[in-house]
């Protein structure tokens, strides 16, 4: 099949819920990223064959196919289509998979994949409203919220509150270090934000990391889902606003245009997992993608496993036997935030730039998803 390469990637800085990006519409935020992406890649907008964006809460400003509206706002010509998909937290990672599959099959040569989510302007679950799961579903499976799933997962893997809070504290520490060392500067496009008083500011630094997030401070937070449990706001991901995207291309087209790819897609996987525990999928998705790639975990130089809750990467580490120093070395969603539909390509962009910065060869990305699913992707730096 055709080799699929990553030419460029870009993201916004991530805003806290009700933070710096509160006054920015989702479609306009995604348009900023789309416009910047093709500029950095030195590709003409009219040559893009599809724009695939992930978005979970497809309501309000995020409804009506935000991929299409964002592309039009960004000045893409009308012949460039767009489609919006929802694979829950892995939506933009799945967008990368769909885009790369279209290119690998020979259907397309140049595709943008990304995602957007404003959890401020379109709150999580607001698209669901008061609708309850179908009785035909609940007859077959126990459907509970992710917080309760997390509590059960913690018990199954015999993790402690102290382990979760220590991991969360380290996420903040790593994120603060990454920001201070300029690790994210290359991948972030500044967003012009209008404040309540009419002044305009440039937003370009992730808002989430907090220097005071020590294990002792986190240990004092109340549990959220079970008063006798361990899951708190401190050891779970932050609700956030943001957008991200990558430009994928066939290797032949990149050569034809004289472009130097940053990485290639080595392998992809997507799995279903227990819809009650819900968050365990990255383990099997990782095993699957490693097998497809013909690699072992020891071959991978860095991994991003989304920190939906602290026990997710901890359980993954335990079962995969991975090196904790290679896991989320620049911090994760606990510190940096989790703008649902944008997280997959946000993490991919960060990992791609890290491989370039460190000289590493292989990177692995895995994300757990609502209702029990997960995607995993392996890339190789070029």
From TrEMBL:
The keyword Transferase appears for this protein: yes
Show where the Thiolase C-terminal domain sits: 259-381
What are the UniProt keywords, alphabetically? Answer: Acyltransferase, Transferase
Q: Could you say which enzyme class this protein belongs to?
A: transferase
Pfam families noted in UniProt: Thiolase_C (PF02803), Thiolase_N (PF00108)
Residues annotated as domain Thiolase N-terminal: 4-252
UniProt xrefs under InterPro entries = Thiolase, Thiolase-like, Thiolase_AS, Thiolase_C, Thiolase_CS, Thiolase_N
Q: Where is the active site?
A: 89, 338, 368
- Give the EC number(s) listed in the UniProt record: 2.3.1.174
Q: Which family does it belong to?
A: Belongs to the thiolase-like superfamily. Thiolase family.
PANTHER family membership? ACETYL-COA C-ACYLTRANSFERASE (PTHR43365:SF1), BLR7806 PROTEIN (PTHR43365)
Name of the protein described by the UniProt record: Beta-ketoadipyl-CoA thiolase
